[in-house]
Specification:
two-stranded antiparallel ribbon
Length: 389
């Protein structure tokens, strides 16, 4: 089973469903393409928000090394030239991210670095007034997150700022009060470039709330949770597919912003996967997730940028009465899509199909059946005769 159709441009996408294009632009109406998604018992579809624009080098995951290497250049673009343990790299001074990572493995970074894939989740639009809810995350390795913290520190030397919030940078609020637009835009583009360079892959899912509220009701709502929880489930499915595609079997640390909406619901979802035996597909184990302050962790600030721009792109190009062309929108999704990015959103049509099929399957198999986040390639969804094509 494939996580979805991202287009041939994505080097970290799983095998495409349907036909794709190898394009370096984001085509208008690209959102008509589909994703496959498993939540509860059934696969469904969501639509692509933007098409990935990254070039397609040949990558392979080397289990004996600690980086994703390219068969063309010998190492991943942007990766550190040092592939030994962190203590031998000594690229950066001990910082906030390193302190957090060290606390996760009780200080033994040199022994645990090979297992230090970690991902950072943030949300946007979860306040009541927003028409769309978004869940976004970035995944990378210890050395690349540590390098990103160094990139942030270098940017602060040019013009100091505290915690980077994309919303504040765009309007000149809080830490960016008094900055000119040119200064803020230069910083935004600089940081987004660093994020694309350091992150292994990004994932973002959006849900149009009014359609979700009208179609996901009753027992199905109890099963799927709130808008943000539903979007997180979609991201978890894509993570499982990515790990399966590249043979990644080690543990990963999951970090959510401590201010995330529905913290208890997210904890219940993660514990549900672990209890049901699906945690291994996600690299998730008991104690393998936490909620941290964005103020102290640069990777969470990177996820904030992706979540905020995903919401802006939804408003500009999808739900607006006069939608902009995807490649003409004034948000930064075009720049973010130059990295390795999986995007998707749920609208009225995809949610209706999901609700009908999942309700039928759950009524046949039971509403308390264990969650499924991954299946072997080529398998069909439970409760249906074939996979979605």
């Amino acid at each position: 089973m494939c996580a979805g159709h991202f287009g041939e441009a994505n080097p970290l996408a799983c095998d495409a469903v349907g036909s794709g294009t190898n394009s370096n632009t984001i085509p208008h109406h690209a959102a008509r393409e589909g994703f496959t998604f498993v939540v509860g018992l059934l696969e469904s579809r969501c639509r692509i928000l933007v098409r990935n624009r990254a070039p397609r080098p040949v990558f392979s995951f080397m289990r004996t090394s600690r980086v994703l290497v390219s068969s063309a250049s010998g190492r991943r673009p942007g990766a550190s030239s040092c592939q030994n343990a962190p203590k031998e790299c000594n690229i950066l001074s001990y910082g906030t991210f390193e302190h957090f990572a060290s606390s996760v493995v009780q200080g033994h970074l040199d022994k645990a670095w090979f297992a230090m894939f970690s991902l950072y989740f943030d949300d946007s639009g979860t306040h009541e007034e927003s028409p769309v809810a978004v869940a976004s995350c970035y995944i990378s390795t210890y050395d690349q997150w540590k390098a990103l913290e160094g990139d942030w520190a270098e940017a602060k030397k040019e013009k100091p700022f505290g915690t980077f919030h994309m919303a504040d940078a765009l309007v000149g609020a809080r830490d960016f009060r008094g900055w000119t637009w040119e200064e803020r835009e230069r910083l935004i583009r600089r940081l987004l470039t660093m994020i694309r360079l350091r992150a292994r892959i990004g994932l973002t899912t959006s849900v149009i709330k009014k359609h979700y509220d009208s179609l996901i009701t009753g027992k199905l709502r109890e099963r799927c949770g709130k808008h943000y929880s539903f979007a997180v489930r979609k991201c978890l499915h894509d993570i499982a597919a990515w790990r399966s595609k590249f043979g990644i079997t080690g543990p990963m640390q999951y970090v959510f912003d401590q201010m995330s909406e529905g913290k208890g619901e997210i904890m219940n979802i993660l514990d549900e996967y672990i209890t049901a035996g699906d945690g291994a597909n996600l690299g998730l184990s008991q104690g393998g997730y936490s909620f941290q302050s964005k103020k102290n962790l640069v990777p969470l600030q990177a996820a904030d940028a992706l979540a905020h721009e995903s919401l802006r792109h939804m408003k500009n190009c999808i739900i607006s009465p006069n939608p902009q062309r995807h490649d003409h929108s004034d948000d930064y999704m075009k720049e973010l899509a130059e990295g390795y990015l999986i995007t998707g959103y749920f609208d009225e049509g995809t949610l209706r199909t999901f609700a009908e099929n999942t309700t039928r399957a759950c009524e046949e198999l039971g509403w308390n059946s264990s969650p499924i986040v991954s299946r072997p390639a080529g398998s069909s969804p439970a409760g249906s005769g074939r996979g979605l094509e």
